[in-house]
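Worked example 3 (structure in, sequence out).
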């Protein structure tokens, strides 16, 4: 680190360095030059190299060491050349040759960052501020204004974890180096917050103390002492109810994370607060010592074993990535053995592994995971439990580790070892919850005694970090996990640069800003899914799975409810995909093709005994070339090249039920009775060869069953085998959670709508889960409903609500919201109900609302200041049932004519355009709205005669027209007698006459509620 600067000049020198190189390492990595973002760095490897040199600037580093660190899997000459190019790129982008003194000190054998160059690093400033406080001569046991200022400046610099969300998965040495610093700086930040709390509490500045106590809790929410500090401060501030509520938050976290009650100390404080006995501050808590400058932990990088990763990892007897497991052969082996032409190659491979090759054939993974686990692991067994401690040896069921990474990073953990993980929720503080650098088996769902395996273990990225990273060349088996809420640039749930078999595992609710919301498969990597579900993940490309030239094989698995710009379920770019007995449904895309599967760049996608149907968006089910090995159901083949072969059913609905708990360890889509998938699969004996269906379905239920009671039985198509005697289990929701960005949006919404004066603001801005706040409903990881009707909301309509991307219902009627309706609401593609009625909204209705293809209810009644024409784009809302644009207080300022495009709303049942300035005739095209039940056009200056086509509205029950300023005339059309369900008809206040036709008069007199002109038309009308 840099040498300590004098206390009085710290900020001055930092300001002066703004004209040089600036690197922010707390939170998101930012690199600037002259206070402007730097562009042109060739790759993350180059950025990582600069970061390493900057942080470790106190000494030079050998070129061989750096080459091996950043390119561990390359030959020495290639790695050295890569380093040379990276340095050249750095010098060019930084303008190193033009800078005096230069940023880099370079010799033939060594490289060092030049501390004399103009630069500013936040980690250095953070450490220097803390060291300045530690060296400052302040009084023992009392406050210190100088240190208070230094600590406050340091706390503001710590904006998040060291190198948060920046990773080099194929550089184990860099990842371990970053992890150590990440933990060191987090501990220093915690110590800084504690010292600030102590300083402010001694001065009875409770508001300031609470600020840092909340930061302390957020830093480590599982730390009970942090909760106790905040509880005490709240109580001493007179906020007794908030202090008791904080205890409930602590109690919930300890229960969810560890399955235990809070400690005696926490319970005791809670009881004392209830009794009004508030703890005072411990005496002389502020000490003259470095608040966070613990003994520096430095990676002994130069002496560390930097042997290339691949050479330390002995491979199996079979060729790399040629593992035959659960009836699936890795695609690398298929390609190498030319499987489609020489299937005997597979039998030879099976023989090498001791697997059976005939009869019931290839062992299904759901039948005996232990055999598969032994194939991947089989070495030393390590134990992990939420009740463990990472300082334990983790080698017995009573000395278990606390975190999964805690076991994986033990010095003795070696290639082929197995980690048994007890049920519970596992998180971490790094860029991923689990980082795998060894061939290993990761086995979840064990009870606390590790005697039985009947549940699931949860890997939770908390919306800020990836679930699992699998480094280059590593082969891993993962069974019985729920991997949820991971977030990263690529591979929010799992990033795979080796080989992984996932068994009885769910990957749900993960996100990637770029590719692979659930799984990212790197070029040369392989993923096998067995009895697993990929659900509700999202990304720009490949919402469920993105294959970047790698390989994906699925067996008895479900890919459902994922979303992306392109490739909602699967996006395959130049890779190889083989789906067997798999269901791909309810995935969607926003603008590119392939709601279910998108295949690009000469990739290979092959389906066998699988369902791809019920997906939505452009090219809803498939896009690109899809090959068939027979017995598939494709819902829509219009936008993909698919040549049906034996047993294929195309352009047909498979009749699937909801994604729910139908038994087994993962959620599935049951086949409804009468589904065309029943008994339509491959007739071969299950498991007899690789084209046949497996011997069980995704739940582990036996195949085949006589699902249609025809007297014979063969496998059903897809991941589910229907038992004709069973019924569908009730829907099972996964754990709900809200991402931090949604929480921030809601907090801003509260502040901008005068939340302090709401009628009911229960829970808002508290530390409770956002899902418990008044008016909020969450489903599967995100806010699905914001319902704050008649709640005294006031102020301009917030524009940032469009950032709650998964919202389904937005109901804010009956408030005092003003301003224009934000055009950004048109981006809420999941919105089903939008009710902004009876507010004070003004301006035009944004045409962008016409993008809400899932909208069923659009209710804008009672906003009398709305103006301008009705956007014709509303005619694009093909799912709309209710369109309500009326006002009852002075009328709206809506003008223009009734758009002909509204005739496209064939599902419309309720249409109101009353009390407006809308003019012109009633379009005859409205006769297309045959589902219309209610039509109100009163108190609007319409003109002309009623078109005969309105007689096509045979479901109409209420038709109100006239009143107020209008120029309607002519005869009521005789076709109105088709309205056999009419209950209320109003046309008084017009010049419309009634036909003298006797049959028409009989029909008219039978209308229960009739408001008429009683003017008979002349005989010629």
């Amino acid at each position: 680190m840099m040498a300590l600067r004098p206390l009085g000049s710290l900020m001055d020198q930092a300001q002066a360095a703004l004209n040089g190189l600036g690197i922010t390492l707390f939170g998101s990595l930012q690199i600037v030059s002259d206070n402007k973002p730097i562009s042109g760095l060739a790759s993350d490897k180059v950025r990582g190299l600069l970061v390493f040199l900057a942080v470790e600037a106190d000494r030079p580093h050998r070129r061989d060491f750096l080459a091996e660190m950043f390119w561990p899997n390359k030959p020495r000459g290639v790695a050295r050349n890569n380093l040379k190019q990276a340095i050249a790129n750095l010098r060019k982008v930084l303008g190193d040759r033009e800078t005096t003194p230069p940023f880099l000190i370079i010799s033939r054998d060594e490289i060092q960052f030049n501390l004399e160059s103009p630069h500013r690093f936040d980690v250095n400033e953070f450490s220097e501020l803390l060291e300045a406080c530690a060296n400052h001569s302040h009084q023992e046991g009392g406050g210190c204004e100088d240190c208070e200022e230094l600590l406050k400046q340091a706390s503001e610099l710590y904006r998040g974890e060291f190198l948060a969300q920046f990773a080099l998965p194929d550089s184990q040495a860099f990842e371990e180096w970053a992890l150590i610093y990440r933990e060191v700086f987090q501990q220093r930040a915690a110590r800084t917050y504690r010292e600030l709390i102590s300083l402010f509490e001694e001065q009875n500045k409770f508001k300031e103390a609470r600020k840092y106590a909340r930061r302390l809790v957020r830093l480590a929410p599982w730390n009970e002492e942090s909760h106790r500090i905040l509880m005490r401060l709240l109580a001493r501030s007179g906020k007794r109810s908030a202090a008791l509520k904080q205890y409930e938050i602590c109690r919930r976290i300890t229960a969810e994370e560890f399955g235990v009650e809070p400690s005696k100390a926490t319970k005791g404080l809670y009881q004392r607060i209830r009794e009004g006995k508030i703890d005072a501050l411990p005496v002389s808590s502020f000490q003259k010592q470095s608040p966070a400058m613990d003994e520096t932990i430095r990676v002994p990088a130069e002496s560390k074993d930097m042997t290339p990763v691949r050479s330390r990892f002995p491979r199996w007897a079979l060729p790399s990535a040629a593992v035959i497991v659960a009836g699936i052969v890795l695609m690398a082996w298929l390609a190498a053995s030319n499987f489609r032409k020489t299937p005997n190659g597979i039998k030879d491979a099976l023989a090498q592994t001791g697997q059976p090759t005939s009869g019931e054939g290839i062992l299904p993974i759901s039948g005996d995971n232990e055999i598969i686990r032994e194939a991947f692991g089989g070495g030393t067994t390590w134990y992990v439990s939420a009740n463990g401690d990472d300082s334990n040896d983790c080698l017995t069921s009573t000395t278990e580790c606390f975190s999964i990474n805690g076991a994986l990073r033990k010095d003795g953990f070696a290639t082929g070892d197995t980690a048994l993980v007890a049920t519970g929720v596992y998180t971490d503080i790094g860029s991923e919850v689990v980082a795998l650098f060894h061939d290993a088996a990761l086995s979840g769902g064990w009870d606390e005694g590790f005697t039985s395996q009947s549940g699931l273990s949860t890997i939770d990225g908390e919306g800020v970090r990836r679930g699992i990273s699998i480094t280059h060349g590593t082969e891993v088996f993962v069974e019985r996990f729920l991997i949820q809420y991971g977030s990263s640039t690529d591979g929010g749930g799992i990033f795979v640069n080796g080989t992984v078999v996932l068994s009885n595992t769910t990957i749900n609710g993960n996100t990637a800003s770029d590719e692979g919301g659930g799984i990212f498969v790197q070029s040369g990597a392989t993923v096998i899914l067995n009895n697993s579900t990929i659900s509700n993940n999202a990304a720009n490309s490949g919402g469920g799975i993105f294959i970047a030239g790698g390989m994906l094989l699925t067996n008895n698995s479900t890919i459902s409810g994922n979303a992306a710009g392109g490739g909602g379920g699967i996006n395959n770019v130049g890779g190889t995909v083989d789906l067997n007995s798999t269901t791909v449904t309810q995935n969607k895309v926003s603008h590119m093709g392939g709601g279910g599967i998108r295949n690009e760049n000469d990739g290979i996608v092959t389906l066998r005994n699988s369902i791809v149907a019920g997906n939505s968006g452009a090219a809803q089910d498939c896009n690109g070339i899809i090959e068939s090995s027979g017995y598939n159901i494709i819902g829509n083949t219009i936008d993909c090249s698919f040549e049906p072969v034996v047993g294929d059913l195309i352009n047909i609905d498979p009749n699937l039920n909801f994604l729910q708990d139908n038994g087994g360890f993962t959620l599935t889509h049951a086949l409804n009775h009468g589904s065309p998938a029943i008994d339509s699969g491959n007739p071969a004996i299950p498991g007899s060869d690789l084209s046949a269906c497996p011997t069980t379905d995704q739940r582990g239920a036996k195949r085949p069953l006589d699902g249609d009671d025809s007297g014979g039985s063969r496998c059903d198509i897809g991941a589910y085998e229907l038992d004709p005697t069973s019924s569908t289990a009730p829907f099972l929701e996964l754990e709900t959670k809200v991402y931090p960005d949604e929480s921030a949006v809601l907090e801003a919404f509260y502040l901008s709508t005068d939340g302090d004066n709401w009628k009911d603001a229960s829970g808002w801005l508290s530390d409770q889960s956002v899902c418990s706040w008044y008016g909020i409903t969450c489903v599967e990881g995100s806010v699905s409903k914001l319902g704050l009707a008649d709640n005294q909301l006031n102020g301009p309509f917030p524009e940032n609500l469009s950032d709650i991307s998964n919202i389904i219902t937005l109901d804010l009627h009956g408030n005092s919201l003003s301003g224009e309706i934000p055009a950004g609401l048109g981006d809420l593609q999941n919105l089903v109900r939008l009710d902004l009625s009876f507010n004070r909204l003004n301006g035009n209705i944004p045409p962008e609302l016409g993008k809400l293809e899932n909208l069923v209810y659009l209710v804008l009644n009672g906003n009398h200041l709305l103006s301008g024409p009705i956007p014709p784009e509303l005619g694009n809302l093909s799912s709309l049932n209710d369109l309500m644009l009326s006002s009852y207080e002075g009328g709206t300022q809506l003008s223009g004519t009734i758009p002909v495009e509204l005739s496209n709303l064939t599902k419309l049942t309720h249409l109101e355009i009353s009390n407006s300035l809308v003019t012109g005739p009633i379009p005859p095209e409205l006769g297309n709205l045959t589902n219309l039940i209610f039509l109100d056009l009163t108190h609007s200056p319409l003109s002309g005669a009623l078109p005969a086509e309105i007689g096509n509205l045979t479901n109409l029950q209420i038709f109100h027209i006239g009143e107020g300023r209008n120029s309607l005339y002519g005869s009521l059309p005789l076709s109105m007698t088709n309205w056999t369900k009419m209950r209320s008809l109003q046309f008084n206040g017009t010049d419309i006459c009634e036909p003298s036709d006797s049959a028409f008069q009989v029909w008219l007199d039978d209308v229960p509620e009739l408001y008429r002109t009683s003017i008979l038309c002349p005989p010629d009308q």
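Notes: Confidence is low (pLDDT under 50) at residues 1-18, 281-368, 728-740. The first strand starts at residue 21 and ends at 24.
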